[in-house]
Amino acid sequence: MPGKLKVKIVAGRHLPVMDRASDLTDAFVEVKFGNTTFKTDVYPKSLNPQWNSEWFKFEVDDEDLQDEPLQITVLDHDTYSANDAIGKVYIDIDPLLYSEAATVISGWFPIYDTIHGIRGEINVVVKVDLFNDLNRFRQSSCGVKFFCTTSIPKCYRAVVIHGFVEELVVNEDPEYQWIDRIRTPRASNEARQRLISLMSGELQRKIGLKVLEMRGNAVVGYLQCFDLEGESGLVVRAIGTVCTLDKISNTAFLPACNSPSKEMKEIPFNEDPNPNTHSSGPSTPLKNQTYSFSPSKSYSRQSSSSDTDLSLTPKTGMGSGSAGKEGGPFKALLRQQTQTALEQREFPFFTLTAFPPGFLVHVGGVVSARSVKLLDRIHNPAFVGIMGNTRSYKLLDWNSFNSDEPETRDAWWAEIRQEIKSHAKALGCHAVVGYSESTSICEEVCILSASGTAAVLNPRFLQDGTMEGCLEQRLEETSPPGCGFCHIPYDELNMPFPAHLIYCYNCRKQKVPDVLFTTIDLPAEAMVIGKGCLIQARLCRLKKKAQAEANATSISNLLPFMEYEVHTQLMNKLKLKGMNALFGLRIQITVGENMLMGLASATGVYLTALPTPGGIQIAGKTPNDGAYEQHVSHMQKKINDTIAKNKELYEINPPEIPEEIIGSPFPEPRQRSRLLRSQSESSDEVMELDLSHGKKDAFVLEIDDTDAMEDVHSLLTDVPPPPGFYSCNTEIMPGINNWTSDIQMFTSVRVSRLSNINLTNQTLNKNFNDLCENLLKSLYFKLRSMIPCCLCHVNFTVALPEDEVIQVTVTAVAITFDKHQALQTSRVPVEKTLQRASTDNEEQLQFPLELCSDPLVSQPFSPAKAASLDKASPLAEGHLRHRSVPSCTNSTVSVVKMTPLSFIPGAKITKYLGIINMFFIRETTSLREEGGVSGFLHAFIAEVFAMVRAHVAALGGNAVVSYIMKQCVFMENPNKNQAQCLINVSGDAVIVVRESELEMVPVQPSTAVSQPASAGDVTT
Amino acid sequence: MTNDLDIFVGNTTLIDEEVYQLWLDGYSVSDAVSLRLRSGILEQTGATVDVLQSDTMDHYRTFHMLERLLHTPSKLIHQLHFQIPPSRQAMLIERYYAFDEAFVREVLGKKLSKGTKKDLDDVSSKTGITLKSCRRQFDNFKRVFKVVEEMRGSLVENIQQHFLLSDRLARDYAAIVFFANSRFETGKKKLQFLTFEDFAYCAEQMIQNWTLGAVDSNVDDMDVDLDKEFLQELKELKVLIADKDLLDLHKSLVCTSLRGKISVYNEMEANFKNLSRALVNMASKLIHTKDVRDFFIDLVEKFIEPCKSDKWTLNDVRLFLTQYTTSAHTLDAFRHQALWDRYMSTIKSCLLKMYHD
User: Fold this and answer.
1) A703/B130 Cα distance (integer angstroms)
2) Which A residues, 91 through 110, put their C-beta within 8 Å of a C-beta on chain B?
3) DSSP states of A606-675 as a string?
4) Which of A134, A445, A614, B152 could be disulfide-bonded to A698 (CB atoms 3.0-4.6 Å)?
């Protein structure tokens, strides 16, 4: 499917003065795609040139269209010397390659230079004509849609959710090429930017091919990351969930899938679950973890710590997996690997964090795996010799991309994924949802991490045959929607780890764990009491500086301790908040020269289905000492007070007896639970028993040494946010849904130098803790004008750029909510849709406002979520679907909203325009003059935002959803007055229409559709 | 533990108006922090000094980056670097170009040159305005002056168009530009009782009536320079005092019509010739640049001070000037009626504005 790319350079403005003598610039533009270059005429002596060029036409095949970025360079013409570059614009033309997205890219783009930053703007128009081609052996995958959003995008419905897709490409990093020594920093940076752009394009194309192979048409939850491995190269890798999406067109409302369990089939596991894998004891969490340093593994020289156990205390009910496959782990691994090779797509993983109703049947708990690897020193032949096998990936000539598959990195990830899969199996789950992968690199050591939530899914949504996963059928009847996902998927008699199981507080029918940890978003149908809050565990561990294997080994040895402690902290803090479940859990382990950092963030909530958490009890080791005793009781009182205060703060007031819930927002499930209860009196008794047991079962903290004392203190030092502020790291904040459209997305970076302090684990912990707490405090202060407000999707990243330097980056969105508006009003649509979701299929056709009866009634779609998030009445939802969105005729710069969430509060997404995936490098050799490191980075991040906004606006969009800053690598050399920063961001460009505009539309859908769009309708 | 780097960047640029004012007022970060501390912000928000320090730094950095754009406000409107709602942009510009009364009184009518800029530390110590703020205000004056100096069309409109200022502020800048161009003396001790507003009003009157723009709206510098032809013609008015008969007739006309109406009749009658001579002499000398500069001193010394010493009320002055102007029309021998009106209407407006304590 070759195509014709057409580019027109219209004008420039605010160009920098390039000629000191005249204070003017003689600018012209080079337009380059692939190996073809066009030039505009020189527009002499102007800072606002009007080129109005002809259409430059590139005839290219679609493979290039997908891989290559369009490169626009603005230069200053100089008669006597070389032309000076003013700056560049890279335009990813991918959004033009699928029919439903943007049709033209047109607008003002900041002209960017890696040394000087933004230098004026250029107005460009880009179009693509694609010719249809029936070549079956094509290498391109035009037409496959990509979404960063980790849920089914709002204007689509999932016909089939196929499953996991992954790919990675590697190359040598131009920054580390010998030629870099004679190249200018600008040339080097530009080579790198261009290379990464090319690699991203290639990666996306390859993933697209896999998607087509799987008969999908889209990738949802697409997460692409760069590993800057330094001398050993550059890895671009991506994971995602392949889906077949259907654009929702006419229907006002799509029926949700109901009674999913009807379709469930009992399919046994393919493989015998390894019986030895589940030896996990919380009191001795280290026992069951093996950290094998296995040189016998031939595929890579590695020190692998397959520490997965996440050191769960058994009471958590969290999936700990098998840490130590004592029973012949190597054999198992080999077997799994061969399997992997054969059935690459067999990973039942989903990068989604929110699902259509009925998709998620049960949640087992968090599964995670980490592995420490040594990066190959590709320049050193001696190392290759030691490795004893051929280098696993060939060095690519960085101008051509037709070399071999990068095997090593693939094998590394395959290994980790296998481990995740087996952990999920151990939890009686056949799938992993909310799956993500990450790395942390320091010198030649790399920690690979993967985590997700083991889950049982409804096979209806998965294509027949694709999912070979096994489904353990546990229920004959439908689980109540509000609590079903909490019910344990594993066998009670054959539990993977000891845990307290209690009958569900909601339905009384099934067992639930007393605490639930997950990496997914809170399901829309989940029943929650009170509000949620951000819970973080922070931890530092010193490590000796070491080289290569010794270093890897010491890291491997430290990891289990860190995981254990992170989990203990999370558990303590959760209990301190009086909550019983964590969502959106993300544990980041960062490796530095002389320390390891662990940062876990999650959103705590109180699930009505789970028991009330017990308190925290402190026990001293020397009970006879009176003063000590007093101290302990004082601490105990403080803790109890804190718990009580938190319960009040987060409005956690679960009724003593669940049956007496009055005015529950979900009357329907409650009825159902009653019904079920009456059917099983006997189990009720058991429940009561368990209940009392659960209450007695306080969490005991032994303070037997100063360490433990510190822990208790640190528990109490976490300051709650000031009044009017809430925070969470998930998409939605339980208990708040009356959002206003006032949003502010921000990135905050802090770099702290640990100089002049005695480096011990305690001081480190304290410093790290203070750093994070102070950062949060600062955010609350800065955003005080938005009160009442909630910080959503708070995403912390920690980096250790050099010795004794900690860098913390936070991206989040602050959303103001209306505190006066009763929550019930916005709950109503949720309730309605929930009821609707549980009615029969046939009833769907009677939906009053449906425009045309869609035959695909049983397709999954999440109306409940959409409605609850956007607080639209379900009736309003359908009306606007067909309205063409008017272009903004405003003369000033159009506003582009950005958010890490998948939605814009108070607005409806009407169109997805394509993925935004941008990589920038900024460097300076005049750091002091640019306001020091803060001035430099502040300006750069503002520039990155500006460039994202400009690209979205040029696509015709007015918002970016699911925005994420995946990388922010900052390096400085103050002595040389230099600094460099690399930033990688991504998101989905969308068009949103404000809800208030929606409501103005007449009720009759037919008129709504035919109504001409009026200017100024766009949310700005 | 020290924070090497500490930044906050919002997709919509976060602007704290209070901190912006402190920045505009030229306070250093540490001064700004202590001033904010005194405002009791910590008690209201429960924040710590560190937080305040970091927040202030962030805002100062933002303002520093915005300053370049504020020099060309149209760039601020069209730039893509910072996403700022239009109302906020207007606020930023308006506040940036706002100036202190005390400062403008020091600089008004001075040449906007490097020499004047060097003397700003004196201005700063005299007015109590920080040197930084003085420099910003001075640079604003100079920037506006440079841009509109040689432009055709209405001065106020040009300023508004290029600097996107509110109508009121644009008018003030028109006055500043006009004063700087003709270098009117405003700093003498005798003129200290006059406010900037008085001068701005006078400037507006002079621009409306005495510049080229008043007769032809399509010439360069039309609002900035006084109409030379007009100034030349003003010499013709001398006949009013040179011709003794005419002067006497003029006096008797004025006296007749003001008898019983004005509270200081006797003083007026006694002083009529002096006052008339003063006003007409000023007119005839305006062709000389030096006399233009001394315009306000002359008005004060030769008209306002004598009247004040005789305790004329504002109403007396108004009655007198009105009658003085209209009576000249009935003088058959006096043929420069249009010229007289063009001169006297402005003089009258200026004097009335300036006639206060």
Assistant:
1) 58
2) 108, 110
3) EETTSPPPP-EEEEES-TT-HHHHHHHHHHHHHHHHHHHHHHHHTT----SSGGG--S-S-HHHHHHHHH
4) A614
Closest CB to A770: pick one of B1, B54, B86: B1
- For residue A271, with 0-12 CB atoms within 10 Å meaning exposed, 13-18 middle and 19 or more buried, which class applies? middle
Name chain A contacts of B13, Cβ cutoff 8 Å: 942
Residue type, position B331, single letter: L
Asked whether the predicted pLDDT for residue A260 surpasses 60, the reply is no
**Percentage above 70 pLDDT, chain A:** 65
Average pLDDT over residues A426-453: 89
How distant, in Å, are the alpha carbons of A579, A806, B285, B346 from that of B250? 97, 89, 21, 20
Beta carbons of B97 and B169 less than 8 angstroms apart: yes
Pairing of strands A595-607, A581-591: antiparallel
A438 pLDDT above the threshold of 50: yes
A164 and A435 Cβ atoms separated by less than 8 Å = yes
CB contacts, 8 Å: B51 with chain A: 774, 777-778, 781
Query: Hey, which residues does A123 pair with through a beta bridge?
Result: A11, A108
User: What residues in A contact B71, CB-CB < 8 Å?
Assistant: none
A positions 919-978 inside 8 Å of B (CB): 931, 933-935, 937-939, 941-943, 945-946, 949-950, 970
Query: Which of A124, A770, A781 to mutate: most B Cβ within 10 Å?
Result: A781
Contact of B176 with B112, CB cutoff 8 Å: no
User: Which of B11, B62, B77 has the CB atom closest to A898's CB atom?
Assistant: B11
Q: What is the DSSP string of B336-351?
A: -HHHHHHHHHHHHHHH
Give me the residues of chain B with pLDDT under 50, please.
none
Instruction: Decide if B61 and A754 are in contact by the 8 Å CB cutoff.
Output: no
Check if B63 contacts A (Cβ < 8 Å): no
CB contact under 8 A, A752 and B52: no
Q: How far off is chain B from A6, nearest CA to CA, in Å?
A: 25
Q: Which of A778, A939, A945 sits opposite B11 (nearest CB)?
A: A945
Q: DSSP string covering A99-135, please?
A: TTS-S-EEEEEEEEETTTEEEEEEEEEEEEEEPP---
Contact A615, A709 (CB under 8 A): no
Cβ of A13 and B78 within 8 Å?
A: yes
Please list, in sequence order, all residues whose beta carbon lies within 8 angstroms of the beta carbon of residue A842, skipping any fewer than 6 positions away: none
Tens of pLDDT along A613-625? 877 777 766 656 6
Q: What is the pTM of this model?
A: 0.81
Beta strands A805-817; A907-924: pairing state: unpaired
Is B313 at the interface with chain A, CB within 8 A?
Answer: no
Specify whether the CB–CB gap between A833 and A867 falls below 8 A: yes
| A405: phi then psi, degrees, rounded to nearest 5 | -70, 140
The answer to whether A515 and A581 have CB atoms below 8 angstroms apart is yes
Q: List, as ranges, residues 728-767 from A with C-beta within 8 Å of B.
A: 744-755, 757, 767
Angle at Cα A898 formed by Cα A190 and Cα A788, nearest 5°? 145
Residue A558's φ and ψ, nearest 5 degrees, are -80, -30
| Rounded Cα gap, residues B219 and B202, in angstroms | 22
Q: Does B335 touch chain A (CB under 8 A)?
A: no
Report the DSSP beta bridge partners of residue A127.
A6
Q: Is the peptide bond before A788 cis (omega within 30 degrees of 0)?
A: yes
* pLDDT tens track for B306-340: 998 988 899 999 999 999 998 888 888 788 888 88
CA nearest to A774 within chain B: B51
Phi first, then psi: give them for residue A336, nearest 5 degrees. Answer: -65, -35
- Which value does ipTM take for this structure? 0.89
Rounded distance, CA B319 to CA B305, Å? 17
